[in-house]
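Ticket 4471: requesting a sanity check on a complex prediction with 2-(butylsulfanyl)adenosine. Repro inputs:
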Amino acid sequence: MTSKDPAARAAELRATLQHHAHRYYVLDAPEIPDAEYDRLFQELQAIEAAQPELLTPDSPTQRVIGEVLPGLVPVKHTVPMLSIRTETDTTAAGAEAFDARVRRELELGEADAAIEYAAELKFDGLAINLRYEAGVLVQAATRGDGETGEDVTHNIRTIGQIPLRLLGPANTHPPLIEIRGEVYMRRDDFERLNERQRERGGKTFINPRNTAAGAVRQLDSRALADKKLSFFAYGLGDAQGWAQPATHSATLDAIAAFGLPVNRERAVVAGSAGLVAFHQRIAAMRDALPFDIDGVVYKVNEVALQKRLGFVSREPRWAVAHKYPAQEQMTLLRGIEIQVGRTGKLTPVAKLEPVFVGGTTVSNATLHNLFELRRKGVRIGDTVIVRRAGDVIPEVVGRVPGERRAYVPNFRMPRECPVCGSRVQREKGGIDHRCSGGLFCAAQRKQALLHFAGRRAMDIEGLGDKLVDQLVDGGLIRTLPELYTLGLAKLAALDRMAEKSAAKLVAALEKSKHTTLARFLYALGIRQVGEATAKDLAKHFGALDRVMDASVEQLLEVNDVGPIVAQSIRTFFEQPHNREVVEQLRAAGIGWDEHEGEDYTSPKPLAGKTLVLTGTLPTLSRDEAKELIEAAGGKVSGSVSKKTHFVVAGEEAGSKLDKARELGVPVLDEAALRALLEGGTA
Ligand code: IVH
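Returned structure tokens:
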């Protein structure tokens, strides 16, 4: 219950915020979504602004919260690690308000020129200060309360992206430089970690941010072995004997040149219009980014102007964080339904009170499996936390602690498939419940078709779920190969199917027949065979028959294929009806060039060779060149050493070219590289 009296409410909010701040910052185990915390925080700020006499020095609004855990050694920051003011107005007005404030504080008039800003992503991880003395990483510390953090050097040293020694010749290394940035976890690394946890029946992690933050503050760095962390630098701490460039953007360039990762989605923009455009551009690509961001950050670019603007209560006046809609929200769990997937797996799906999260309205979210649902302790009627980030399907990550008004029975899996009535089974020791109906089950048939037609599989445009429902429910298709016997007449007879769209689908089916072995293998929907494994199989074996006839031992020789995957592939191709499906698909005209398996067919002209790329090549991008070199068996390294075989130099090649000359490493241009790739000699 919330109290009406502002003084009492402020005290209540302070206690609540303190509790949640401790859960979040110290224990890395929040009970409520960040957005809910922000709401409470803002409510307290509003009360304190209206009635300043209610403000107390220990209010959470007055300091950066975070305690030093017993066990990690405290580190006093020589330059405090500040926090930034947050602009929670997620519309363009947020950017305009910041620019207006900066101009006012600098006493600029309308006639004065636009201010130059450095605009960056706001990474959602944990702030870290890296201290380099004479180019060597001597200490890494968390922010803590801004004055005193914790020494986490032992863990930070395990992050491959963070150089233990700065790049460049020793005489260019400042006696002291502190580089600040964010340790975070990529979404794919996070998904992989949770996938592994699920396979083992272990506890899954809530989100990449908490996982990264928790990992960094472990006492024992071995706990990081299964968690791949990443880092982006975004600023400077203490520095001595270093001439800092005149702008923030140039400072980041210099930091990047020292070998630290600096995100490339940053820009120098002019005035509020530039900020708004940046905010919108990044919003459009937010879901496609490989990591979570919770907003963007704007910084006045000129260091001299930053100095003039200064600070208010530990927040610089020259920077602001401009938020995007939160990726986690609370909502009511109204019910739980069962969805039957391609492999017959029964997934409990949460039916939610619709909630706006991560930029869209979500009313369904996965609960993954019975065990995870039980571990999270969610029951119908609970308030739950929903997360939606990127292209990942929305999921329920936990429940908000609170009393239930009435007894709610624990959710149980049905004994019979809700779609086809077949018996539901669970493998001994397994986690997943499955419908035993196989292709008799309409749900499995539909999902198998959708998977087969998917963009990354056979890429049959226009074959979506509505059409698949009709095809299966109408009894037009029972097996995958029957897709290719559909013909114009049958299709055009379907509901809501005009002649024109039927013709389009027929053309798409025809087009899909020319594919690649990797796509075909993936499209078959073999359990445990995702896109990456399908590519590895195609590359390793080169021909379908070789994959179909491979023994478990032979399969184990493939990159990243372990016993479970190998057995699953073997089992699939041992079943006569699966072999028949493959034969019928081939008979329908599906084909590919059987020379994808370079291991078998093409020679590897760059096997065992290490190359370094520098400068801009006339036609190839960095990534393209890298891909070609790797496909030819070569390795691409970031720095030149005596072990480098070739340096490929383009226009504006820098210190790497000098180094190559110094060490006598052969230097190639793009034409020479292409000749090498084709098997010639340099
Ligand atoms: S600048 C004086 N830039 O956001 C300015 N911070 O309170 C200091 N963050 O936890 C911070 N991305 O770790 C800055 N591009 C970015 C950032 C960023 C994420 C985090 C930072 C801190 C919070 C700011």
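Notes from triage: Residues 6-26 form the longest helix (21 residues). Leaving this open until the requester confirms.
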